[in-house]
Description:
There is one protein chain. The protein is α+β, with helices and mostly antiparallel strands. It has one domain. It contains 2 helices and 5 strands, in the order E-H-E-E-E-H-E. A 3-stranded antiparallel sheet has the order 1-4-3. It has a two-stranded antiparallel sheet with strand order 2-5.
Amino acid sequence: MNESKFFAEEPEGASSYAKQAFCAYDGEPEYFIVSVDAPCKIGDKKEVDSGIATLILNDEELQLLGTPAVLDRCPFPPVPDKGYPPIRSDYPSS
């Protein structure tokens, strides 16, 4: 199966996407944000969800990514009527 994955280019974009999904969908799973190195000339760059700069990678391009590092913190402003989105704090960082 050929699949594509979306990666925000900046942590603020990833945070914004997670907040939008948390607000839009009941039962949305927890989010954690990672940093990963990628070669300069892979993927397609697009803006999604109100201007979030995103890199879209296919299965073959995913193999070219470096080892991800989970960011310790991803501050979110509170969501009206829902509080703070859940962020995994138990995920091991590298």
